[in-house]
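Subject: for your reference before the review

Hello V.,

The reviewers asked for a structural picture of the protein, and I figured it would be easier to keep everything in one thread rather than splitting it across files. Below is the amino acid sequence we used in the manuscript, unchanged from the supplementary table.
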Amino acid sequence: MAVAALRRDDPVRLGDYHLLGRLGEGGQGTVYLGRRGDAGEQAAVKLLGAQAAESETARMRFMREFEVAMQVDDFCTARVLDVGMQDGRPFIVSEYVPGPSLYRQVTEHGPLTGGELQRVAIGMATALVAIHQRGIVHRDLKPQNVLLGPSGARVIDFGIARALDVSTQTTRMIGTPLYMAPEQVRAESAAPPIDVFAWATTVVFAATGAPPFGADSLPAVINRILNDEPDLGDLTGRLREIAALCLAKDPERRPDAAQVLLWLLGKDLAPPRPPAAAPASAELQAIPREVLVEGRKLAELRRSDAATRSTGGTATDPADLSFGERGRTSPAGGRADWGGAPTPPPQMPQTPLPPHTPPPAGGYPMAPRPPHGEATWPPPAPRARKGSGLRWVIAASVVAVLLAGALALLLLLPRLLASDGNGGGYETRSPQPTHTVTSSPYGGQGDGYGTHY
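And here is what came back from the structure prediction:
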């Protein structure tokens, strides 16, 4: 790491550390190379900027963050050594890592490849595992905060970005936009998945020399982060697959740092699965297949009727769905009220039927009564202005019919088993010619309960 000379307004000593030069400067403060005593080891001394130090909140967060940082294992980070205060400005002393930042290495010497790239990716992932295990979120992982020391990649300034934020507004973005996760851009979350996202963006930069969402104007970058797929460039092989999983827009779909590390070490990839659909309730699972099939037919009949009423045209003949009798047709060509006795479809041969109890007034005309009793259908809901409301009515009606049929079957099954032939007091009707439905419009058994994401 290059060391620049001190400036005239720079301090020459901070606490027990004599300052030898400048290592870097940012919006939050300046990092100096220091040495404790005359023959002590070198250290990196970060001094909070004068403007930030004017905020009591910023000073308190800075000191509190030091206590948290002391808990993180130092085998892959810059070890925190000390903390102090001078002229009202706090400073943090950490281990000095003699090596360039990942950003400088790539911009000056080109992208990393092969084993070198793999070692950097593993080193960063290992650091995140150690940080997250202590309940800390870095929130500003980027190429500038990864040092390439003699012993490998070392992550620095973990958590400091949060401590140095002087704004009290909870909706302000905190971090470096080029490497932010979507939820971080929207100021919605500061949980570990944002570090996993930043890990992937940093790996892409190391392999290609550019962030995966570009580096032009801030609005353009943010729009790509929120809406576009990442540009993984020349990143190849297993590392490309892992990075793609870590760059998922939804934080729930990203692996955690420990899983990333295991993948990097050779464990088989097992992408996080999308949320599974809620299983059907025990009552619905117990409904016989015949009831489900009839329910699907009934849903198709309702859909055809709705299409006729909304477009004024002629929908598919419901008789093709094996539902027997249909509602009457008015002289004007539209369907008459659903109430009243059912009228046989035109041009259909009729067979005299024994007397039976007509359906209740207002009920939907049903097919011949099954041997286990008759299920009723509630009056149709008023036509909605748009298709979405009608679909909800159809779905609710189908569920009601399914539950009613299942309940009737469960209650009357013992009587059916005890009866012979047509006994038991249940009336029968002569069969009417129908068309056979070869397949349900919703597919095989169990369809219709869609998975939502």
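For the response letter, the relevant points are probably these. The beta strands are 13-14, 17-26, 29-36, 42-48, 80-86, 89-95, 146-149, 152-155. The chain has a mean pLDDT of 71.

Happy to draft the paragraph if you're swamped.

O.
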